[in-house]
Amino acid sequence: xxxxxxxxxxxxxxxxxxxxxxxxxxxxxxxxxxxxxxxxxxxxxxxxxxxxxxxxxxxxxxxxxxxxxxxxxxxxxxxxxxxxxxxxxxxxxxxxxxxxxxxxxxxxxxxxxxxxxxxxxxxxxxxxxxxxxxxxxxxxxxxxxxxxxxxxxxxxxxxxxxxxxxxxxxxxxxxxxxxxxxxxxxxxxxxxxxxxxxxxxxxxxxxxxxxxxxxxxxxxxxxx
Length: 224
Hints:
Elements: H1 2-70, H2 74-88, E1 106-108, E2 111-120, H3 122-131, E3 135-136, H4 142-148, E4 155-160, E5 169-170, E6 195-198, E7 207-210, E8 216-222
Parallel strand pairs: 4-8
Antiparallel strand pairs: 1-2, 2-8, 3-8, 4-5, 4-6, 6-7
Helix pairs in contact: 1-2
């Protein structure tokens, strides 16, 4: 009987230790999941904060230039112009943390694209692309636009003038230089259209400005 009790005690201890190890592993797994979520959010916030800060800085420089021009201080105005030009260069874009692109990304001219069919608002689309390590597509040539326009139906791209009306920029912070507007666009109807979609009327790949609250397909892009 004494030996039986001893054996039961040993078995109970072994089970307890095993259960403890399972708990530790599960606890570690949960901690890892929380960590991954935190990292993804930090990466997205990092890019968004830097982009917004840059756009705000440029807006303040523009306002400052208006003041010095009113005072006819041409030398100071030139200095402000130089600062604005520095911001317009691609080298000033915030560096995105490196994340591996999805396996279903399609390559075109050295960049990679994912055509997302799940509808989202413009800002939701922007966030989802950034969480995946890319950005809402930036179109810089007719060839790239022809590739992108194969999407079915109205689709968000990464251009916006929400920081300053009429001054279109990509989500990466660089200015929009090549454009493909529909005739009569952009129109900023009701002063609420600050985001760009393609294929609104047809599949020509032409651009329209829209309210960012609309829920559309979108395209994410990766540079490598």
